[in-house]
Design a protein that fits this description.
371 residues, mainly alpha, 2 domains, four-stranded antiparallel beta sheet, 15 helices
Length: 371
């Protein structure tokens, strides 16, 4: 019973750390672009991440089973409470340290390093299946940020091409037909009570008294799309990250996958509420100066890649994808903060060895205590 309690505590610590480091990443562009306050952005992130966590019960079972460690380490370790406690403890300590320092690192990397470190401590380095490590874990993690850089730049360029025409004709109106029709108007209903559809600027619509039946402001539409895209990123993160942590609880036969995910989702939300501020500042303001168009581009690129990876069971890092998309945009606008990016990349490089070392130490201590 003590081991089961320790396992739940270790998994909760990892979920708390994950929430502090990851919850704000999807909405960083809303905060950095001035569309939302810190509290409002965090609330939106919490709600949409929770929705993604719930969806992972139905759509991310492959990730749930992959992060039990089965196939990467000997099967005997996968069912060992001490091994799983070591993995959770090592990964949690690494992610929490990064959160306190304001570095947006990958929980996926932390888990992978911890799996390797605890496995090596328990059964020796030769017990790690390097082929599975490279094919199922390392390759998706390496390709994620590279694809995100390219996709972020492409999406931003496409949206930038459409920005000027949208700004010049920023209002779509449906009005009762007037004696003098505006240029470009198209009749929708003929007769005495005919309606007209026309595209114009907001100022022209207001000056002519148009838009009385319906009016669509392109600027407001872009803001709403930005909010939706931020929610999509947070949803994708919940879908991709929750089962990775919940997998640690599957070693306890009394806990079902559904309840494991619900428990982890709750603790992740608490972690984001109490500890997301420092990473929020890094993601929102230190990588590059974000305007709403850049934020929308980054969110579209990130959510597309992470959602696709989740459905195919690929363990990409939401952090790496999100930062990669931001950096791809920053390279396009030539506003990248090189010093911040170097610090982030260095934190990524040390995540694996630090998590491996921490998990190995936890395993040694737990094994000694257990004997």
């Amino acid at each position: 019973m003590f081991l089961l309690f320790s396992l739940a505590l270790a998994a909760a610590f990892l979920a708390l750390s994950n929430g502090a480091n990851d919850n704000f990443k999807g909405v960083a562009s809303l905060y950095g672009g001035g569309l939302a306050s810190y509290r409002t952005a965090l609330a939106w992130a919490t709600v949409t991440t929770a929705a993604g966590s719930i969806a992972s019960v139905f759509f991310a079972s492959a990730l749930l089973h992959k992060f039990t460690g089965k196939g990467l380490v000997p099967d005997a370790l996968v069912t060992s409470e001490i091994f799983v406690i070591s993995v959770a403890g090592g990964a949690a300590a690494t992610v929490m340290l990064a959160s306190r320092l304001g570095f947006p690192i990958s929980t996926t990397h932390g888990l992978l390093g911890a799996l390797g470190g605890a496995g090596a401590a328990a059964a020796g380095p030769d017990a790690i299946d390097t082929l599975t490590l490279a094919k199922s874990f390392a390759l998706p993690l390496l390709l994620g940020p590279v694809l995100a850089i390219a996709l972020g730049a492409v999406v931003f360029q496409v949206l930038r091409l459409g920005r000027r025409p949208a700004a010049e004709a920023a209002c779509l109106c449906i009005d009762p037909e007037t004696a003098v029709q505006p240029a470009g108007a198209m009749a929708l209903v003929a007769g005495p009570t005919s309606l007209s559809l026309h595209v114009s600027t907001v100022e022209a619509c207001d000056a002519a008294g148009q838009g009385r039946l319906a009016r669509l402001d392109a600027g407001h539409l872009a803001d709403r799309l930005h909010w939706a895209s931020a929610g999509a990123v947070s949803f994708a993160r919940g879908l991709n990250d929750t089962p990775k942590i919940a997998a640690l609880l599957l070693v306890a036969p009394i806990v079902s996958p559904g309840w494991s995910i619900a428990f982890i989702a709750l603790i992740m939300a608490i972690g984001g509420a109490i500890g997301a501020r420092r990473v929020a500042e890094t993601m929102s303001r230190r990588i590059t100066r974000l305007d709403p168009h850049e934020g929308l581009s980054a969110n579209l690129a990130t959510s597309s890649l992470v959602l696709a990876a989740s459905f195919f069971g690929l363990p990409v890092s939401t952090t790496h994808v999100s930062v990669g998309a931001l950096f791809g945009i920053a390279m396009t606008t030539r506003e990248a903060n090189a010093r911040t990016m170097i610090g982030i990349v260095l934190s990524w490089l040390v995540t694996l060895p630090v998590a491996a070392l921490a998990a190995a130490l936890v395993y040694r201590l737990a094994a000694s205590f257990g004997t």
